[in-house]
Amino acid sequence: MASPEPDRRPIAARQLRIFQRMADWLVRKGASANAISVAGMFAGMLAGTLLFLTPYLAPHHLERVAFILAASFVQLRLLANMLDGMVALGSGKASPVGELYNEIPDRVSDSFTLIGAGYALSGNIEIGFLAALMALFTAYVRAAGKAAGATNDFRGPMAKQQRMFLITATSLYLGLAPREWQPVLGEPLHWGLMAMVLAVIAALSLVTALRRLMGIARQLSPS
Question: Which of 211, 136, 154, 210 is nearest to 12 (CA)?
Answer without folding.
Answer: 154
